[in-house]
Amino acid sequence: MSDEAPWLVVGLGNPGREYAGNRHNVGFMVADLLASRTGGKFGRAKRAQAEAAEGRLGFPNGHSGPRLLLLKPLTYMNLSGAPVVALSQFFKIPVTQVIAVHDELDVPFGQVRAKMGGGEGGHNGLRSMSKSLATKEYARVRFGIGRPPGRQDPADYVLSDFSGAERKELDFLVDRAADMVEAIVQEGVEWAQNKYHGV
């Protein structure tokens, strides 16, 4: 693992106020929380169509923890890979230090899961990242949103807001997802799985 390159944490979502509360935008929500935890402030990235923030784990107690580069692509979900690869190349970030945070239909709401590599499960943001990075071997924090009720189209479901009942738990779950990102950075995916998957 590189001591000098930051970790690239990619919150997947769609830009624009109309998408802000969508299930598909939970990656942005986690990235925003991590920015507030690490002392980062989002601004327009110079080298990519994205908003980016830099911070450190351990902020504000000595700034001694690993550096994080938080990224919210502004390309819309199906083109998320271009800004990811642009910044990972510029900062010389190895794919082993890339974490995608995304909504996951195959995980029930209320659960957050860590994973290394694997398929994209039909998620266009992950598909774009894998294509641009030319590998699927990056870490993921999978925020469970569950399957749509009845016959609702999954595409409509992910672009709808969380229900009132879900919103009561949302802040807690976004907090847990941010904890999981920090655990992966500091201890690795397997350690994060052991700590959080039984919860």
Automatic annotation (TrEMBL):
Residue numbers annotated as active site = H24 (proton acceptor)
- Per the record, the major location class is cytoplasm
Task: Name the EC number(s).
Answer: 3.1.1.29
**Compartments, record wording:** Cytoplasm
| The entry's keywords | Cytoplasm, Hydrolase, RNA-binding, tRNA-binding
The source's domain of life comes to Bacteria
Q: Which InterPro entries match?
A: Pept_tRNA_hydro, Pept_tRNA_hydro_CS, Pept_tRNA_hydro_sf
| One family name in Pfam for this protein | Pept_tRNA_hydro
Described by its record, this protein's role is as follows: Hydrolyzes ribosome-free peptidyl-tRNAs (with 1 or more amino acids incorporated), which drop off the ribosome during protein synthesis, or as a result of ribosome stalling. Catalyzes the release of premature peptidyl moieties from peptidyl-tRNA molecules trapped in stalled 50S ribosomal subunits, and thus maintains levels of free tRNAs and 50S ribosomes.
- Give the family per the record: Belongs to the PTH family.
The record's listing under NCBIfam families reads: pth
Q: What is this protein called?
A: Peptidyl-tRNA hydrolase
Q: Which gene encodes it?
A: pth
